[in-house]
């Protein structure tokens, strides 16, 4: 155990130490964090629903009706009419035959991976996929083949080289640290051509992209089917907590039988399901949230170009500013914080060595004036 301390000290020397902040107010752009008021650009609450009065009210009413906890796994009487209604509404939203709730997106990805690819199979993953997809690959026992980020030629080549057997392609829909989007149509075409399944992790696209916020799959004109599975999270644009997998009847029944992260865990509170139903309704009805978000992104990108800031290719609310060196990114994040602006530095191993960045993320709860304040602070920190 002495080694733990040594490793921690080394991590600190390398500028890679992670620490938590203490928030003393709800998830909104203006927040009180670590004892001071600041303007935050570091949440995934893209539609500004996490503290929305209707969502909070649904949570309260839900708790009165269902209590605080679900008390058991879904398969052991933890599955309520609230969970069931939410599953049906989510399936309808993304145009899938069925949807299955999971406690978190991390667990949903582990669940699909553990239930689907056979040990003799091959799992093809974008090199920049989320950690939960990569961890899922280990659990599945299938051979992991990583292809270059967004590179469909590389994927095609690797699929063609693979021996016959079960194949699953998995990709983020929107990449969480880069903000760019997977070429969904090309992925689906390659999956068909090579008789592979496709799992799209739309944690950051759901609610934000496509008609009514139905996500990257819908934006490409596709819906989940026998070969295409969609994983969506509820703790980001929908502002609550949890996740779901949408797909065919047979997929959902298989997950219920075999996804260990579904079978052996407590169902999320039914009150959270009620809150998510309210959030989903707002997401479907209030297009202005997505339009406003797009206008914030456009204003930010135009302002950043004037300041000669190096933004990554992204049209989503995730707008990373590439810095490069880890310590430089940390110093910039600290300087912004001193000016009352919260933007996290993302460092290796979350991103590749030499590609440390500031991950700026926007929410429909931000105003144009918030964007201007951010640009002003970035300009002054860069000049220094
Ligand atoms: N997939 C992606 C692409 C993510 O960014 C995240 C969350 N960071 C997850 C899955 C996990 O979702 P959850 O936070 O609900 O566990």
Automatic annotation (TrEMBL):
All residue ranges annotated as the Aminotransferase class I/classII large domain in the record: 37-378
SUPFAM superfamilies assigned: PLP-dependent transferases (SSF53383)
Chain sites annotated for binding pyridoxal 5'-phosphate: 105-106, 176, 204, 233
PROSITE patterns: AA_TRANSFER_CLASS_2
Catalytic activity reported: 6-carboxyhexanoyl-[ACP] + L-alanine + H(+) = (8S)-8-amino-7-oxononanoate + holo-[ACP] + CO2
Pathway(s) served: Cofactor biosynthesis; biotin biosynthesis
Cofactor(s) required, per the database record: pyridoxal 5'-phosphate
Tagged with keyword Transferase: yes
Example of a GO MF term: 8-amino-7-oxononanoate synthase activity
EC class (word): transferase
Subunit structure: Homodimer.
Membrane-spanning intervals of the chain: none
Name assigned to this protein: 8-amino-7-oxononanoate synthase
Family per record: Belongs to the class-II pyridoxal-phosphate-dependent aminotransferase family. BioF subfamily.
UniProt cross-references to Pfam families, sorted A to Z: Aminotran_1_2 (PF00155)
Role description: Catalyzes the decarboxylative condensation of pimeloyl-[acyl-carrier protein] and L-alanine to produce 8-amino-7-oxononanoate (AON), [acyl-carrier protein], and carbon dioxide.
Residues that coordinate or bind substrate: 18, 130, 350
Superkingdom in the source lineage: Bacteria
Enzyme Commission number, as recorded: 2.3.1.47
N6-(pyridoxal phosphate)lysine modified-residue sites: 236
GO biological-process terms attached to the record: biotin biosynthetic process
Annotated source species: Thiohalobacter thiocyanaticus
